Structure formats: C-alpha cells, structure tokens
Amino acid sequence: MAEKITKKTIDQPVIKCESVYKIFGNNAKRVFRSAGGVIDQDVFQKAGCIVGVNNATFELFEGELLVVMGLSGSGKSTLLRCISRLTETTAGKIYVEGRDLVAMNNKELIELRRNKMGMVFQSFALLPHKTVIENIAFPLQIKGNSTNESINRAMEMVDLVGLGGRENYFPRQLSGGQQQRVGIARSLAVEPDIWFLDEPFSALDPLIRKEMQDEFLRLQGVLGKTILFVTHDFDEALRLADRIAIMKDGIIEQIDTPANIVLNPATEYVRKFTQDVPREKVLKIEAIMDCNAKSLKIGKLTISKDALIETVAEAVLSQAELVRVTNEKGDTVGVIDRLRIINVLFGDKKSSG
Amino acid sequence: MSEMRNYISNNKKLTQFVVLLVIFFSLCFLISPSDSNILWRFPPLIAGLPLLINDCVSYLMYEFMPIEIYDSEIEEYEERPLIKEVTRALSSTVLFCIQVIREILLGGVKTIVTFTSWDFVNENKWAYWPALPWTVVCSAAILLGYSLRGFGLATLAGLASMYISIFGQWEPAMETLSLVLIAAPASFVLGLFFGVLAYRNKSVESALAPLLNIAQTMPHFSYLVPAMVFFGVGDHAGAIATIIFATPPMIRLTILGLKKVSPEVTEAALMSGCNEFQLMFRVLIPTARRDILIGVNQVIMQCLAMAVIASFIGAKGLGFNLLLALNGLRVGQAIELGICIVLIAVVLDKLSLAWANKQVDYFADLNFMQRNKYKIFLFFLLFFWSIIAYIGTFLFEEGFNYFYLIPHNKGITTETFWQGGVDWIVDTFFFQLKAFNEFLIISVLLPMKHAYLSMPVIATFVLIMGIGYIIGGLKSAFIVGFFLIFIAFTEWWDRALITAYMATFGVIVSALIGITVGSICAQTNITSKSIILICDTFQTFPSFIYLIPVIMLFGVTDTSVLIAVIVYATIPATRYTVEGLRSVPDTLHDAGSMSGVNRLQRWLKIELPLAFPHMMLGVNQTVVFALFMVIIGAMIGTEDLGQYILKSLSDKHGIGNGLTLGFCVAFIGLAVDHLIRTWAEERKKALGL
Ligand SMILES: Nc1ncnc2c1ncn2[C@@H]1O[C@H](COP(=O)(O)OP(=O)(O)OP(=O)(O)O)[C@@H](O)[C@H]1O
Ligand SMILES: [Mg+2]
Q1: Is A89 in the pocket of ligand 1 (CB under 6 A)?
Q2: Residue B352 CA, ligand 1 centroid: distance in Å
Q3: The pLDDT of residue A65
Q4: Residue A277, SS3?
Q5: Where is B118: in which H helix or E strand?
Q6: What distance in Å separates residue A144's CA from the closest CA in chain B?
Q7: In what order do the strands lie in the sheet with A194-198?
Q8: A142: nearest CB among B264, B265, B278
Q9: pLDDT grade, residue B5 (50/70/90)?
Q10: Bridge partners of residue A17, in order along the sequence
Q11: Residue owning the nearest CA to atom 12 of ligand 1
C-alpha cells in the first residue's frame, strides 16, 4: 500500500489546479465567456458578478501542507470549496489524484468525499442534535459502516483528539476549542488522504489556538496527510506551512516556501503583506551563514543549517565565538556570528535579505 | 444632522396621518347612508361568486372526467366521475385507519368485517375484537412516558389517562384520540413533505406562500364546508378537514427551520459524503428539529382544536359531547370534557417532544431482557389487567365492569360540583356580573358596533389604503385595497364590519393586557421564564375551550365571546412582549444605566422602542387569534361572518358561501397582517435589528 502511494507521488500531484475560475452571479458563465479571459473586477461587478477565484494554477504533492492566506474576501474559502466541489467552478480543470474532479458525476463525487476528503470548518459546523461520539461517527455511518464499527472507530478518534470522557456531550456543552477538536476528529474519522481546513482555529482564543496548533502538528506528524490550510494568521502559517499561497481578489499572487515569500516577494502586494513578518521566524540559519570563513576560530556550539533563526538566536547570542553550522550529515557547511543574528533581529529589514 | 432629518421624516408621516384622518371623518359626515349611494356601500358585484363555486364543485364532483369502474355488487362496469371516486377511496382509507385504532382501544367488529363480511361476523359470535381494558391503556401510557422521559412524564400520562377513565369520559376520549392519532401523523408527514419540497424548489415555495398565508387566516369552520362537500359526513370528513387545517403551520415551520440551518452544516454533511436523501433526513431535518418540533406541537394543538370542531360534520368523540353540553348550557359537563381535551393535548405534546429528543446510549452492553424490558413489562401488564378485568365481570353487578371500561357518564362526576360552583358565582355576583355585562354591551360594544356600521365604504377604503400608503407606499396600499375590495363586493360587508369590530375590541384589550403583563414579567429572569411557560401551556388548549368558563359567567352574549377572544388573544401578545424585551442586548441596558436612567425611563426610552417591532408581530398574532375566536364564537351565537359560515354548514349548497365567507375572514386577517408586518420590518431595519 505504502509503496503504491509513493510511486504515485513521483509522477502525479495529489491536487492539480489548471486556471481555475469561480465567478459568482446568475449569469456568471455567460459574462465570463464574453470577457474572453480578461477578468476586470469592475466590469464584472457591473454585470452583477463577483469574482471569487481568478485563474488559480498550482499543484500540491503528497504529504505537503499548503497554507492559503489573504485578506478577508480574497477568495480563500472559495478556492477550497472549488477543490472540494462544494461549489462548481466556472472554468478550469481540477485533478484529484489524477482524476478530473469537474467531470465526476454525483456518485463518484460522493465516493471521493466519503473516502478521500476531510474538511474542518471555521464555525465547527457540528450537528447540534448529535453527541460528540455521534458527530464523529457520522461520516462512517453515512458510508454505510455498521453502528458498532463506526462508534468504535469514533471512540479511537475521541481519544486521538483528547476528548476522552466527553463522548456523550452535545456540542452546545463544549467549549470552542473542544468543539473544533470534534470537528477535526470527524474529518479524520474516515482516514482521508486530503484534508481541507478553513480557518480552523480563528474562532478560538490565542491560548487555545496555540494548543490546537500544537495538537495539529502532532497529528500531522503522525498522519502525514496532504493538506490545504486557510488562515489569516501569519504566525500560524509559518508554524505549519511547507508552502504558502497568497491571494488577493481571487488571484494567487505568489505560491512559494515561507522563506521565499518573505525574502523574494513576487509582487508589491506580497511584499506589503509580508513586510511586518519577523525574519527570524522565516529564515533558516542557512540563509545567513557565512560559508567561506571555515578557517577562523570556531566555538563549541553547533547548530543545524535548517534551524529557524528564531529557535537558535538566544544560544548564538550567548556565544562570544563563531558558531558552527552543520548539515544533516554533521559536516560543517559554514559558521555564523552574533552580528549576523543581531542584524536579522534588529537590523534594517531590507538589507537582511 | 441625521436626527434632524429623521425628525422631519417622522413628522411627515404624522402629518400624512392627520390629513388622512381629516379626510376620513369628513367622508364619514358627508356621505349619507342610503343603499342607493354607491359611496355608502358598494354593490355586491361578486355576489354570484358562491354560486359559481357551487357550480364548479358540483361539476367536479358529478361530471368531470367520467371513468369506468367495475361495480362488484351489480357485476357491471359503471361510469362514475373521477373526483368522486378519488374522494370516496380517500374517505374509506381514512375511515378504515381511524376504525382500526378505535377498535384496538374500544373494541368492535368493523375491522374484522372489512376482512371478512357481515355474515361471517353474525354467524361467529366469537369474532368480536374486545376493547383493551382501560387499565392496560393507562399502564401503557405510564410506561411510554417513563421510557421516553422518566418519572415526571410517566406521572403526567398516568394521571391524565386515569382522570379520563375515572371521570367516565373514556369512550369519547378514545374516539377523539383515534381521530387525532390518524390526523396528527398525517399532517406531520404532509407538512414535512411539502416543507421539504418547498425548501428544495423555489417555484414550489412561491406557489405555496399565498396558499399558506390564506390557510393560516382561514377560520376553522371554513374547512368544514369543503370537507363535507367532498368527503361527506362522518369521522373521515372530520379527520380530513383536521389534516388540511393542521398541515399549513407544519409546512411553514419546516421551511423556516430548514432555512435556518447554517450552510456550513450542509457543507459538512456533503463533505461527509451524504447523498441527497441522507442530507435531508439525517442532517437538515434533525438540525432544524427545534422549529419542526414547534410544528409538531402546533399540529397536535390544531388537530385537537379541529377534531372537536369537526363534530359539526359528524366526527364522534369529546367534541360532539362538548357541543351538546354547551348547547344545553351544562357548564359542569363542559368543563369536565374541556379538561379531558386539554389533558390529551398536553400529554400528546409532551410525549412527542420526549420522543424526538430521546438519546441513544451506545455503550450500554445490554442483553435481550434489558433491551426489551419495557415491552416485556407491557406484555405482562396486558396479561395481568386482562385477568383482573375478567375477574371484574364477576365482581360488579348491573353489567358494568369497571376494570374493563368505565362507561360514559358512569364514572365519578364533578358535574354537580362545577355546576354548584357556577351557580354560586352567578347567584352571589349576579348583580355585579349583570351590571358589568350591561355596561359593556350598552356603553361600549353597541356604540362601537354602531360606529363601525355607520362608516361609508369609501371612507373605510380611504382610511385603510391611506394607512397602507403611509406604512409601505403604493404597493401596500394596493395590496390591502385588494383584500378589502373583495369583501366590499360580496354581500357581507356589514357582517364583516361586525366581525372587524369584535376583533378590534378584542385586539385592543388583549394587546394592552398582554403588553402590560409581558413588560412586568420581563423584568426578571424567573418571571419571564414562568410567563413563557404559562403561555406555552395555554397555547396547547384548543381555542374554544376558552368559551366554557365565560359562558357560565355571562351566558350566551357578545360579552362571552369577547372575553374568550381577549383571554385567547392575550397569549401571543404577552409572549412576544416578553421575547422582545428580553432580546434587548445587555450592552444597551448597561449603557442606559451608565447614563443614569431609572427603571421606568429605561423601559420607556430604551427597551420598549427596541422591542416594539417584535411586539407588533405579537399583535399580529393577536389579530389572527382574535379573528379565529370571534368566528368560533358563532358556536354560541353571534351575528358576524362566523354565524353565516356556520349556517352554510347545514346548507346543501353551502360550499360557495362557506368558502367565500372564509376568504372574507382570511382577507381581513391578511390585510392587517400585511400592514403590521411591513411596518415592523421597516422599524427593524431602521433600528438595525
Ligand atoms: N455564495 C456566494 N455568492 C456570491 N458571492 C460570494 C459567495 N461566496 C463568496 N462570495 C464572494 O466571493 C469573494 C470571496 O469570498 P471567500 O469567502 O472565498 O473569501 P475568504 O477569502 O474566504 O474571506 P474570509 O477570510 O472572510 O473567510 C467575496 O467577495 C465574497 O463576497
Ligand atoms: Mg473564508
């Protein structure tokens, strides 16, 4: 099983979008066709249409976590809805594991959702009339599993998200964080390969959010799913993302690794969007180390080139000497001194890149 | 700046209103009352409408689309009209269903006859289905209550069923119950079905909307006439009228509930891989169950109200007896019967709620005995009480077996007690009651009635359409104008005015009482909870129950009807006032307190204006309730539209009159409904609610 998946990974992305458009409005298709590919917000607005997603093209590979960011109304949720086909796209192609999503009939779609996809919602979207355990077992029962089997599996999920002992509570008897745990457990119950999370933590207070992020990272460490994650919170994005996509007015302005987004913004908008992001949270030591200064006196401290600056800054600052930087095999690849760290932490932002 | 503009625009409306009143009164004085004056009364242009309806109906029933039917009695094919066959088939199905339940409860042979023949039953004396001993039904009710909810509900169900039995109302009560047990589930299913259909299909919804509006403002009696014409007389016609009457609120609440389900819940369900069927029945309907359960509550309430009124077209049961008791002015008996009806309503309501809210325990590891303990226990009880009932046959003389079935009027009766109480009250307070009655009739009601009747029709139009214009512009003016013109062109404009006067009086008094009581009770948490509970309980009572106590005090007069109207219509006014006031956000209270207002000021300046739109919706309900009650008042003799509807029941060609009159009442209700709703929505928008 595992081998098969790895093989697939090499030649095909799990999700592939080709020029996906989503226009809202009664006569969206017609307006879109007559526009001939030139999407002008104002023109569309006059025709009574709203642009949700504008020419989204990207690929997402097995086990990758893509964070989608952007201001409110920039089309993040709409993009997610298109890929889960909760809304029909106006134009473009979407492939899920190589299969054309748009061409799927209802039955195939239901099969796909029952077995491959899971989704977590911002406002939890739990079924108010069902208890925790029933909510989590719901997708399994819908799939046609026996009650016993579903409940047992749901019970495992309850333990996984740390809600043991509360399985007979109703959603209204739970706190926001607990409700979202139920939402997460429910979306994981069918063991989906693709996991959509639409601002899962933004309704939670900062402490619980942090806790949930840790929880999420722990789960992802265990499960290794392919994930599309929407958030407003850059800190959150940086903690979680393999890649980040920045959206504006439905357009994906840039899709890249966190470091590249911050250091090499593709557009003015992205630069502005990321200008307040603390560099040390994005940059790895590798980006600022000195590769040529091997001969100088080096101290005892050794750090990995993949470490984020934020995580090792304190250690380096406490050293008078140069600090050795090694790669994963333990070979020395460079050194770093306090000055470079200080430059990143407090220095002029533009020059630090 | 904006306050300034607001002030002017408010003033503008006020000026408009003053001008309107001036025109209205000058019209009233200028136009002389004579029948030839077209401005005084419009000619009855659509007086022929009832006849037209009659003709259409008889065409439908007797001529439309003849089909060949094989008649087994004459062993030949025969031509019969389609509709008649359909209604006949429907009637016999419904009747059969009612009979099955009735005979399970009370015993009988008709069910057996249906499967065999009369000859068979006559030859075999053993082929008689015995009634369930009442003790078994009581135990079953207790057990059901216990298994669904626990001790409290068990007690309620037990006490209610024992009351009914011991007071000797078992037979009529079970007859009513059998009708309700068919009608309520049927209404529920139909309501749910159409609600779902309307939710999924916009055009169905817009087609249903006006029908629902009219249906909800049509008085009970208007349903009886068509039911009688199409389905004849008897339990089945009563049941069908009941079903038609009780379905619209269910449809409405189903649509409302489904629309309230958040789109994310739907999406979550879709992402779980629900197909359409699963989405509807496992997600949407359960999620909307709060509103749907209110619908169930309404259905049960309406069914009981209607099941009793259906006695006019031959439905057996408590209603029939109640009708007799009321006509014979046997107040004591009427009270006993009324209590039975209320008990059935309350118990059914509570049982259905408990059933819908029942929770499953997945982790209990039960064996067969534990899982089926209630059924086994019930079986045991059936056995036990049957033996007791058998023993009872030797115990009691005179042929009555009190362990089996306490016959009608052979139970304990409190009739003399009630009658005594009533007599005492009437004797003791005779002069006060009489004085009050006379005062009300002579100084208030008659002048008011006279004033209404001396309005020229054109003045009424100017007033109502003018108000429509001020509230909602030209569109509203034309909508209410249409409603009025229909009534004005029938021959019953004067009757409609009398109905309107009674309803107006009722509404004003109820609104005053309701808003006052509601405002006082909304001050603290406990009182508001209790008043809502009281309203809930009173709302479960079928409407004309309210007539019983007032008749005993004021006899058969307009006063009685009006007091019943007031009591009944105060319920929604109170409830909406409490809800409106309680929903004023706390932040506003705090803001008020910070600026140093006292309680009265807070109520007058902050709470009341904010809650007013919601309270007006309560007044809206009050209007509909009042109209219904005025019409039901016809049962004890009034001279308004209701009386004519009642008359059309005994008329062979009554359907045209009955329906047209029903529309008249509905249109009064709809016109007021439109005005209040438009106004409340406007206010809500202005207040940003
Ligand atoms: N059902 C709809 N009908 C019409 N327009 C819609 C609909 N759903 C979304 N839109 C519009 O599409 C645009 C993108 O909306 P979307 O919900 O994707 O934004 P978002 O990035 O998720 O915002 P947020 O961060 O607030 O959730 C918005 O302008 C919105 O008004
Ligand atoms: Mg969103």
Answers
A1: no
A2: 41
A3: 92
A4: coil
A5: helix B118-123
A6: 10
A7: A99-100, A91-96, A15-24, A50-60, A251-256, A243-248, A65-70, A226-230, A194-198, A117-120
A8: B278
A9: low
A10: A58, A94
A11: A52
The closest ligand to the CA of A121 turns out to be 2
Q: How far is the CA of A73 from the centre of ligand 1 (A)?
A: 5
Strand, coil or helix: B611 = helix
- Name the minimum distance, in Å, from the CA of B152 to any CA of chain A: 23
Looking at residue A4, what is its pLDDT? 41
Q: A75: Cβ below 6 Å to ligand 1?
A: yes
Q: Match domain A281-351 to its CATH number in 3.10.580.10, 3.40.50.880, 3.90.25.10, 3.40.1190.20.
A: 3.10.580.10
Domain boundaries defined on chain A:
3-116+227-277, 281-351
> How confident is the model at residue A350, as a pLDDT?
46
Kindly state the average pLDDT of the residues B404-427: 76
DSSP state, residue B36: T
Backbone angles phi, psi at B173, to 5 degrees: -65, -40
Q: Which residue of A has its CA nearest to B269?
A: A139
Domain definitions of chain B by residue range: 15-44+429-687, 53-123, 134-427
* The two structure tokens encoding residue B372: 């089926």
Q: Which of B271, B287, B363 lies at the smallest CB-CB distance from A84?
A: B271
CB of residue A76 inside a 6 A radius of ligand 1 = yes
Which residues of chain A are within 8 Å of residue B264 when distances are taken between CB atoms? 121-125
Q: Residues in chain B, how many?
A: 689
Predicted local confidence at residue B284, as pLDDT: 92
Answer whether A87 contacts ligand 1 (Cβ < 6 A): no
Q: Do B271 and A187 touch (CB under 8 A)?
A: yes
Are the beta carbons of B419 and B1 closer than 8 angstroms? no
Q: What is the DSSP string of A65-79?
A: EEEEEESTTSSHHHH
Q: Is the CB of A74 within 6 Å of ligand 1?
A: yes
**3-state secondary structure labels for all residues of B535-597:** HHHHHHCCHHHHHHHHHHHHCCCHHHHHHHHHHHHHHHHHHHHHHHHHCCCHHHHHHHHHCCC
Closest listed residue to residue A262, CA positions, set A327, A173, A350, A195:
A350
Atom of ligand 1 nearest to the CA of A232: 25
Q: In CATH, which of 3.40.50.720, 1.10.10.10, 1.10.357.10, 1.10.3720.10 is domain B15-44+429-687?
A: 1.10.3720.10
Report residue A155 as tokens. Answer: 């019970």
Q: Using H for helix, E for strand and C for coil, what is the string for B272-296?
A: CCCCHHHHHHHHHHHHCHHHHHHHH
**pLDDT tens profile B45-91:** 888 888 888 888 888 877 777 777 777 777 777 777 787 888 888 88
Residue B618, pLDDT score: 85
Q: How far is A274 from chain B (nearest CA, A)?
A: 30
Tens digits of residue pLDDT in B636-688: 777 778 888 888 877 777 888 888 888 898 899 899 989 988 888 888 888 77
CB atoms within 10 A of CB B61: 16
Which residue has better confidence, B280 or A27? B280
Residue B1 has pLDDT above 60, yes or no: no
Strand arrangement of the beta sheet that strand A298-304 belongs to: A298-304, A322-326, A332-336
Ligand 1 atom with least separation from CA of A87: 1
Q: B526-557: per-residue pLDDT in tens?
A: 898 898 888 877 877 777 778 877 877 777 77
A299 lines ligand 1 (CB under 6 A): no
pLDDT for B136-168, tens place per residue?
888 889 999 998 888 999 999 999 998 888 888
Does the domain made of B134-427 have the CATH classification 1.20.140.160?
Answer: no
Residue identifier of the C-alpha nearest atom 8 of ligand 1:
A78
Chain B residues contacting A via beta carbons under 8 Å: 262, 264-265, 267-275, 278, 282-283, 286-287, 289, 359-363
Specify the CATH class of A3-116+227-277 in words: alpha beta
Q: If you take atom 5 of ligand 1, which residue's CA is the nearest one? A: A24
